[in-house]
Each structure stands twice: as structure tokens, then as C-alpha cells.
Amino acid sequence: xxxxxxxxxxxxxxxxxxxxxxxxxxxxxxxxxxxxxxxxxxxxxxxxxxxxxxxxxxxxxxxxxxxxxxxxxxxxxxxxxxxxxxxxxxxxxxxxxxxxxxxxxxxxxxxxxxxxxxxxxxxxxxxxxxxxxxxxxxxxxxxxxxxxxxxxxxxxxxxxxxxxxxxxxxxxxxxxxxxxxxxxxxxxxxxxxxxxxxxxxxxxxxxxxxxxxxxxxxxxxxxxxxxxxxxxxxxxxxxxxxxxxxxxxxxxxxxxxxxxxxxxxxxxxxxxxxxxxxxxxxxxxxxxxxxxxxxxxxxxxxxxxxxxxxxxxxxxxxxxxxxxxxxxxxxxxxxxxxxxxxxxxxxxxxxxxxxxxxxxxxxxxxxxxxxxx
Length: 373
Description:
This protein is mainly beta. The chain has 2 domains: 6-309, Methylamine Dehydrogenase, Chain H, CATH 2.130.10; 318-372, no CATH class. The protein has 5 helices and 28 strands. It has helices spanning 14-18, 312-321, 325-334, 341-361, 365-372; strands spanning 6-12, 26-32, 35-40, 44-54, 60-71, 78-84, 89-94, 97-102, 114-116, 118-123, 135-141, 146-152, 157-164, 171-175, 178-182, 186-191, 197-202, 212-216, 219-223, 228-233, 243-244, 251-255, 258-262, 266-271, 277-282, 288-292, 295-299, 304-309. The strands form 7 sheets. The protein has a 4-stranded antiparallel beta sheet with strand order 1-28-27-26. A 4-stranded antiparallel beta sheet has the order 2-3-4-5, with no helix packed on it.
């Protein structure tokens, strides 16, 4: 049964990025507030300002204004971008080197500070250091079976830790001292402070791309065996039931209460509250899906799109209109963390009342009586 939870809205059209140069492909994206950064296969970074517009009918559109673009000087793709807004720095991975550039003018920092020998990297969103003018960066090193942790300041970098892993790591997410790693044959949790590790479950890196994503404090989302989206805490347990993805998921994101997944043909939306698939959006040739401060962005090689969530109240009313009372109540309870307490209580009472009338009309008097109560 479907719910209209999201609409797909174009943000950057291919003409804005590449004009008539057909060979240019989008390799990576980063979004920080209104700033959208795009890295391409011909070693350029593009900076756009995203402006969200809402029509009187409530329709949301995005206008992207190009600020500038910068050539990094290599013959390689820009493979990853991460913004460190507190430092006004963009961390750029190209040719196994992470360079620090200014977020506004895209110029490298004058000191030339960089991290060499990185295959991929991630930022620690729950840092252990406590210095607001420093970000913690975790890299998979070009050295075999090695993870390195760095502190990155405005104009310098400092290595903090080097950790060796039982097998070659392919993907990493970090929370505090905990690393969640996709190795060659399994996922593990590793505390880089104590060295303690915890096996999660097996998977085969030869057959599919691993997905390791931090979704909250001490909790990760992983692409598990059999096309399952699995949740795992730093203690190696799962507090939520898995969601059923397709076998070839290439990206995932969280927009509470939904888990969104991308495969070669579709974007699928599952509820974290009842694990049911709620929506399927056709989307061909997508290869990037990321969430930034709750905003889910997807990209093909040629364009960037935003998944705009419909207001939860509208989704609940749509469910009630089609007499799906249980689903509406589950979603309403789940909406509690997104809505101020007083507003939620007024809304929830009204929803219970509507649900009660629906059950009453279907002659389900006991259920209606409970809801009216």
C-alpha cells in the first residue's frame, strides 16, 4: 500500500553544470545550508546557492545559482566532498589526497595542509575531542588494512590514531570512538580507543557494494545479506526490525520516520515504524544518495534532485482518507519527535477522533470506543 511521502524535485539541471560538454559527469555532492557543492570527473568543483521557493499552492521548487567553479589541477575525478562549516572549509578527496579549501572561494588553504594516502573518508558527527574549531576525520588508508583518524583544524591536520583491521576495509562510518566497518567478508564495530571489536554479520564485498551509514547516536544502518537494510548499535545489537530492500541497493539515507534506498531503477521508501514499503519512485541512472541535515539529495551523472518530504499531517490525513487507521496511528505516534509537544497533543487528539469515526462507520465498535476514550 502506498503513501505519498516524498516528491522528487530537480535542483541542478545538466545545462547549468556542463553546457554542451557531454563528457562531464557528477562524481560527488555536498550540501551545507544553502551551499551545494558538486565534484566532477574532470577535476572541477562547482559551488551553487540553492534557494527553496514555495508557491501559494504549496508547491516547492528549487532555484540553483552558480557561484563559481574551480579546477583542482589533476587528471583525476573529484571523488568525495565534505563540508566543515565551523572551519569554513571544504574537504576534497582527489587522487588519494584530501585537500582543505575555503568554502566560499574554493582556494586551497595557504599552509597547503592536506592528508595523503586516503581511499575514502568520513567525518565524526559525534566528536570525542570537544574543540568546536576542529573536525575529526576518519580515513581508509591506501596502506593495507589500515584506518587513520585525524584532527583537522582551519589550516593544519594532525594524526591522532592508526588502527589495523583484521581484513581490508571498504567502507566506514564513525560515532564517537566507534568505527562501523565493512570489511572483505563481514561488518564489524571497532572501538579505536580500546581496540575492542564486535562482529556484526557477514556479507560479500565481491558481490555487492557495502553501505555503512551513521543514522543517530551510536546507531548505524547497513546493507545486509538477502537485500536487508539492517540496523546495528555500537553494542552489536539491533533495536529495530530490518527493512526489505532490493538486492542491488547502491545508496541509502534517513529522513525520519523513513529509510530511503536507491537502486538502479527506483527510489524506495520504507517506514522505520512498521518496516513496510510506503512509496516507490522511478529513478533511472541514479548513483548518489545522501542526506544533509535531514534533506535527501540524489544524483545521476548529469543532474541533482531533492526528495522533498510531504508534511506528516498531510500523510496522516491521506491514510485516514483511505481508511488505513492503523498505519495513520503508527505514523502519528512516530511524528511526536518532529512536532512541538502542545501542537502534537492537539493534532493527535483530532487524529484519534477521526480514526474513531472511521472504525465506528465500519461497525468496529470496540476499537472505536477505545479511540474515542
